[in-house]
Amino acid sequence: MENSLDEVRLALRGPGVGVLVAPPGSGKTTVVPLRLLGEPWLADRKIVILEPRRIATRAAARRMAFLLGEEVGETVGYVTRDDRRTSSRTRLEVVTEGILTRRLQRSPELADTGLVIFDELHERNLQTDLGMALALSARRRVRPDLRILAMSATIDAAKVARLLGGGEVAPVIESPSQYHPVEVRWAPVARRQRLEEHMAALVRQALAVESGSILVFLPGVGEIGRVLALLEGGFPGVAVLPLHGTLSAVDQDQALEPSADRRVVLSTDIAETSLTVEGVRVVIDSGLARAPRFDPRTGMTRLRTVSISKASAHQRAGRAGRTEPGVAYRGWSQIEHSARLAHTPPEITEVDLAGLALEAAIWGTADLAFLDRPPPRSLKEARDLLGDLGAIDAAGGPTDKGRRMASLPLHPRLARMVVDAAGHTTLACRLAALLEDRDILRGDQIPVDLRDRLLVIAGGHHPAADRRAVERVRRSADDLLRRLGADPTEVDLDEAGAVLALAFPDRLAVRRGGPGKFQLRTGTTAWLPDADALATEGYLVAADLDGKRKDARIRLAAALDPEQVASAFAHEVEEVVRLSWVNDRLVERFQRRLGGLALDSTERRPDPSPAVTTALLKRIADRRLADLSWTPAAESLRQRVIFLRGRFGDPWPDWSDRGLIADLKDWLGPALSNATGLDDVTAINLESLLRRRLGPSSKDVDQLTPPHIDLPSGRRVTIDYSGDNPVLAAKAQELFGMSITPVVAGRPVTVQVLSPAGRPIQVTSDLAGFWSGSWREVRKEMATRYPKHKWPESPA
Prior knowledge:
Blueprint: H1 2-13, E1 17-21, H2 31-36, E2 46-51, H3 54-68, E3 76-79, E4 84-85, E5 92-96, H4 97-106, E6 113-118, H5 126-141, E7 147-152, H6 157-165, E8 172-174, E9 182-186, H7 195-209, E10 213-217, H8 221-231, E11 238-243, H9 249-256, E12 262-267, E13 280-285, E14 288-295, E15 300-307, H10 310-318, E16 326-330, H11 334-338, H12 354-363, H13 376-389, H14 400-406, H15 412-420, H16 425-436, H17 450-457, H18 467-484, H19 496-503, E17 508-511, E18 517-520, E19 525-527, E20 539-545, E21 552-560, H20 562-568, E22 574-582, E23 585-594, E24 597-604, H21 610-622, H22 632-648, H23 657-662, H24 664-667, H25 678-682, H26 686-694, H27 697-704, E25 708-710, E26 716-718, E27 727-731, H28 732-735, E28 743-744, E29 747-748, E30 750-754, E31 760-764, H29 767-772, H30 775-785
Parallel strand pairs: 1-7, 1-8, 2-5, 2-6, 3-5, 6-7, 9-16, 10-12, 10-13, 11-12, 13-16, 19-21, 27-30
Antiparallel strand pairs: 3-4, 14-15, 17-18, 17-20, 18-19, 20-21, 22-23, 23-24, 25-26, 28-29, 30-31
Helix pairs in contact: 4-5, 7-8, 12-13, 14-15, 15-16, 15-19, 16-17, 16-18, 22-26
């Protein structure tokens, strides 16, 4: 490393940027910064080292302070989200990612800083990529003398050099490996064997046949706890210790500090590159890690268990060869290894980008350069979400609320909830802390209601609660309150749903159908077990769904009442009034809607209006005029006009179904101006309405086509105009004395001569000819059949 230091100094004195590639344990994290403190270009300014992890931040600061013979907080200090050890003498600060971002946003010139070092760049954390983009932008805009050094064990150095150099290529300094040889042994998990059992078996095997301490890589805290339980008490003189980010600083130090005893350290991937565990000669690698991935269940980024890359496996194995030849057991096969990715995908391509988009909006320029460009679709979805949360305006600039949100170490959803929860800040902070971490209730058939978790955080008991997780959430909630300058207050659990809606306005759900069946405001369906306490609630806010696009399972939620919904979404709720038919009733349906979600609905008979008239007219047209009250007089008038049009054409109107429907609005619409239902339609005097439609021609209708005729018997008979010719039907005895066939509109009436029983015995348009002709035969037959009736020889 000493030989490489001269090249690093030349790079920083000259172009001011450089890339240092050096293996783990070579001293790049702790030696290089110390050697650069005396550089003349640094003057009295600081070196800031960015470390991706809090535990590595503290460990690096302690190691450098030890090398200087000082305490942490003197020349070397550190700053993390929840801890700070610095003083006025501090010239070398190790900070976590979010700290650097906040400093750059507050003061882009970083006036007190001469060099920013990005350590472990190969991990490609989103915040590291963002911090580098902001630092490079600041260097171009306001601080051309700001030095930037990127350091990594395994990375595409040429790609980083092009980014740092802008139009040029930054110098790349490579330090040779100092590893001792490491023998790799393949030990895949047997079928149906649990990972934890397999890893514990490998530890027992290594303790029996190998010397030195053992570093075991496991994906997460849960696996570490289960392997620890399998190994505890089984090895006298061997300390089995956990190492992960959620441990207290004291417990972390116990695993990291040199010890004369043989140790088995069960670690997450934090020991892969950033930390050195002293005395390790054996590595046992599960080949798994928790990596951030966008989770559609929550709409945020969550940790998921994934297979590590070849580069990560190489890094882990190298931990066994720091001081002497070592052994690395890999819990997977060599064939599987060949199919793994060469490098870990950068987070910027895998996670939710809402936080990055908000920081970019606050930075305010379009010149941010990243090692890998954010996917356009993910970036658009992030900006859409920020707009919905009120963090950015229509032009994409940050709002005052957005700036307050960015000041909190939370996803923008949760930050918006905390910022906007006026009067319920403590509740919002506890909900945010709960949702940032793993569920504090573990096991099967745990309740969905977030209020159960809030009760535990407040000091209550639940048999499924994880004690350590509960303590972490309490600390996180208290930290948020301190950042806001707020004191803890009494929590109203009934407000949990309303407060949660601030973070998840798109996750409001209303019950549809039986218990446990819900519809989200996006229109998709969701469910929860019908035995759950929330299954019968009317409204929920779902904070965690299982990710299915249709019929998703709700895993975490809180309930709201109708008034809370109306209040929480007051600016988005719209009242929709629609007319609809319920069987034969026209009703006015008042509905409050939130996007695609119907909140509630009421019905009543509508008041008269043009819309009601239109609905009635459409109904009448659709049913081909059947809803009108066709009295015999109205039907007769219509038939006669149709007959006259067929006989003479214009100016007689077309009163067929098609003609009347085409003209419906003109002739029927005015009569419906005060109508509100079908009963008003049937009450209309249709004959009078149609006569008014005819105007003066109404009298001509009666003259040309009389509706009835008086027979010699004295009875008045209606003429049927429904066919091509008018028809008169009467019994023979009623026609006696009528010698001439009636004529209407110049056309003879067709006469149906009926028997005493009302059955047709003759149809004729020449009544006189009938009397003088075929009547004789008809008479004989009728006289025989109906002897009591008169059958004269000359009826005319």
